[in-house]
Design brief:
It is flat, with a radius of gyration of 34 Å. The strands form four sheets. Strands 1, 2, 3, 4, 11, 12, 13 and 14 form an eight-stranded antiparallel sheet that branches. A two-stranded antiparallel sheet has the order 5-10. It has helices at about 10-20, 40-45, 65-75, 80-85, 260, 285-300; strands spanning about 30, 90-115, 145-150, 155-160, 170, 180, 190-195, 200-205, 210-215, 225, 235-255, 265-275, 305-330, 330-340. A hairpin with a 2-residue loop joins β7 and β8 (about 200-205). It is built from six helices and 14 strands. Bound molecules: zinc ion (ZN) (3 copies).
């Protein structure tokens, strides 16, 4: 027996939940929750100045350490050890740059439709759903990207399932009336058997000559359960609030054009976290200060658009490596030793050809 008192609610109910956040049933996935005041509110926060950048001494590297790194590399990659063992270091040069990074940890809210099978449960539709930005949401760890779905109270209504039109079952999409064309004979009921100059036809054993087989998906029924209402025929439509936390970041390497430096991790010189950071203005490398200015302006502009910035973090890293030049058998070669990482970057290593003194 169908519970008639829980059939589709009146039009008033539709109006009640369709008015929420201007949501409409047009197939759209998400409806942004406006937050007009965010930009002004962010601008009213007094930016916090970063602490002074600590003194740091230019790192150095010894010949011995550089050659050790090269020999380790040669051994790891199975190269001929002789050039590394006999290398004469002719020059060592420290190359360095600064990586500046600005992160803005933001929160954004959207509403989404949620459809679930209606199993006869009581729905509480007696209250007024709270405005999207007043719903409390527990923040995840800062500077991480994640989301949380929060069901909004008083936003449920019951309707006939739109997928099966209230039937509970839908026609099987992989067959026709429970029959599937036999793949073995392509629906003919027989197969060709080519014997030198003439062709025989063989009765298809897969379908017993019928040309069709029972559909595997619906077991020959021609229809299957509706996966939207799970055969309950009715669904509950409700509104879910999705809170999205995103960590936006921009970074740049200043002070060097060396391509290898871009891939290297660096040594942190300064980390500064605040609700709103003031761009770094006291730093030996002007590129870093320019980037800080540019990124803070960009973030204040872009990430306060229907979102709010919860926290900012700026960071400066020293990225460095040592370029080592050496000779082996009158030829000059180079490799790099990263300052803060294991291993060597070896662009060219002597090709040892098989000459008289090589082992076969
Ligand atoms: Zn067949
Ligand atoms: Zn089927
Ligand atoms: Zn259905």
């Amino acid at each position: 027996m169908e519970k008639s008192d829980h059939s589709v609610h009146g039009e008033a109910d539709w109006g009640r939940i369709l008015r929420y956040n201007n949501m409409v049933l047009n197939g759209q996935d998400e409806f942004p929750c406006p937050l007009e005041s965010s930009k002004q509110e962010f601008e009213q926060i007094e930016p916090e100045s970063p602490p002074p950048c600590p003194q740091w001494s230019a790192p150095s590297m010894t010949k011995m350490r550089a050659l050790e790194v090269l020999r380790k590399h040669v051994s790891d990659y199975g190269l001929d050890p002789r050039p590394a063992n006999e290398a004469q270091v002719t020059n060592m040069e420290i190359l360095q740059g600064y990586r500046y990074r600005l992160e803005s940890f933001t929160e954004k809210r959207v509403t989404r439709w949620n459809t679930e099978p209606y199993k006869g449960e009581e729905l509480d539709d007696s209250g007024v759903p709270p405005p999207p930005w007043s719903v409390p949401a527990e923040e995840p760890p800062q500077f991480t990207t994640s989301f949380k779905d929060i069901p909004l109270p008083y936003t449920s209504l019951i309707k006939d399932c739109g997928r099966c039109l209230g039937r509970g079952r839908i026609a099987c999409t992989s067959c026709e009336n429970g029959r599937d064309k036999c793949a073995h004979c392509c629906g003919r009921g027989y197969n060709y058997n080519y014997v030198s100059t003439y062709t025989l036809t063989n009765h298809c054993y897969m379908c017993s000559g019928m040309g069709h087989v029972r559909c595997m998906f619906c077991r020959g029924m021609g229809e299957s359960r509706c996966l939207v209402c799970m055969e309950h025929k009715k669904t509950t439509l409700s509104i879910c609030l999705r809170v999205k936390w995103v960590n936006h970041q921009n970074q740049i390497l200043c002070g060097s054009k060396e391509a290898h430096l871009h891939q290297l991790s660096g040594r942190t010189l300064l980390t500064h976290t605040a609700k709103r950071v003031r761009a770094l203005t006291d730093f030996p490398e002007s590129g870093v200060m320019d980037a800080a200015q540019r990124f803070t302006q960009k973030h204040a502009q872009e990430y306060t658009d229907n979102a709010r910035i919860l926290q900012q973090r700026q960071r400066v890293e020293l990225v460095w490596m040592c370029r080592v030049s050496y000779t082996w058998r009158d030829q000059t070669y180079q490799f790099y030793v990263p300052g803060e990482e294991e291993g060597a970057i070896v662009d060219n290593y002597p090709e040892v050809t098989c000459d008289c003194c090589s082992v076969m």
